[in-house]
Amino acid sequence: MAKFQFPRTGNLVLLDVLNQIKWQSFNFPTDVMLWGQRLDVSTWLTSFPRNTSSFYTFEILYNKVALFLNSGRLKYSYWEFKPSKNRNITFVELGSKGLELFDDKHKKMAQIIASWKVQPVRFLALGNRTGNLGIYFYSPTTRKFEASFQALNTTCDLPLACKPYGICTFSNSCSCIRLLTKKNHEVSDCNQRVPSCFCGGGTTQVKMLELNDVVTVLKDAPKRINVTKTTCANLCLNDCKCVAALHSYGDYGDPSSEQCSLFQLVAGIKQVEKGLGLSYIVKVPKGTSYHHNNPSVKKWVLIVVGVVDGLIIILVLGGLVYYLVHKRRNNLQGTNNDT
To answer: What is the CATH number of the domain that holds 125?
Structure first.
């Protein structure tokens, strides 16, 4: 190497005696993409959250850019952006207004636009705590970098918003799964560990249980079509690597539109509105109070309103009652004084 250069773009470049680039840091990105940086297809950013073996990647693929949750050899997407008309991507570049997508003729065909238009974009980052993708600018007012674009705008859309087998509720808080047996004995709580692998025990040791009104944000799981909910549960039950299944009714008038996705990872569970035609079914060890050999789906009783939500409701109702009583007392005192 003859010399190196460090221009304003932040790209460290090593040159030979003929001033030809032999190595540059832009070709080896970590979790940040700087303004002016270009990433070719089949490259990615990577970030590692703490206290977990899973990690996040932002990948540039031929037909889309996407966020992935990786766990061992498993990979599931949880956000994606596709160009229109099924056009292929050759490379992406971070410009002053956002992330630009180019085709094989170096023509810009799509763009993820940052909402803040006064200050130029400085960098794109993949958060190591949340796995969210953000585009940032520098704010002279606050004197710090702020996000002008975020791929995911709600907590419950994050893949690791809660611990495994935890549910992200409408209040953006995490609720654990509790199962009530026929005798109303609680056999599962937040402190009980559910095995991540069921191979070796056979189907007689496990069962499939449906979580009411919840789904997973994870995508790209192996999918079967024209499958009923019971068949979907059985497919996961008979596959020791499968730990959860998502069944979709699609069009209720068309049975062939039913779909079943099989997952080897339980994560990204969130509460949804009723009536969406979605059923999320997880595999768990058989409880001591159940002795059914029938692998049909049983229902979970979810405690989705946590302690915090309950306290808030109690405080609001208590405050309202206090206000009405206090107002009535003042009115009575005023009437007595007038008399």
So the answer is: 2.90.10.10
**CA separation (Å) from 102 to 26, 32, 84, 93?**
17, 20, 12, 8
Give the end of a domain, one of 153, 179, 206. Answer: 153
Are 98 and 141 found together in one domain?
Answer: yes
**pLDDT of 204:** 64
Quote the CA–CA distance of 232 and 325 in Å, as a whole number.
Answer: 55
* Cβ-based neighbours of 291, under 8 Å, separated by 6 or more: none
Q: How far apart are CA 19 and CA 32, in angstroms?
A: 27
What CA–CA distance (Å, rounded) separates 29 from 57?
11
Indicate the pairing of strand 21-24 with strand 166-168: unpaired
Q: Are residues 292 and 177 in the same domain?
A: yes
Q: Structural domain of residue 199, as residue ranges?
A: 166-302
Question: Can you tell me the distance from the alpha carbon of 15 to that of 74, in angstroms, rounded to the nearest whole number?
Answer: 39
Does 105 share its domain with 48? yes
337 part of a folded domain: no
In the prediction, which pLDDT does 300 show?
A: 45
Tokens 């850019």 found at = 65
User: Bridge-partner residues for 142, per DSSP?
Assistant: none
Interval 216-244: pLDDT, tens: 999 999 999 999 999 999 999 999 899 99
Q: State the pLDDT at residue 46.
A: 95
Query: Are residues 88 and 214 part of one domain?
Result: no
Structurally, the chain folds into a number of domains equal to: 2
Per-residue pLDDT reduced to its tens digit, 241-254? 999 999 998 655 55
Query: What does the pLDDT look like over 11-51, one tens digit per residue?
Result: 666 766 667 666 566 666 789 999 999 999 999 999 999 88
Left (φ > 0), alpha (ψ -120 to 50) or beta: where does 172 sit?
A: left
Each residue's pLDDT tens digit, 82-97: 999 989 999 999 999 9
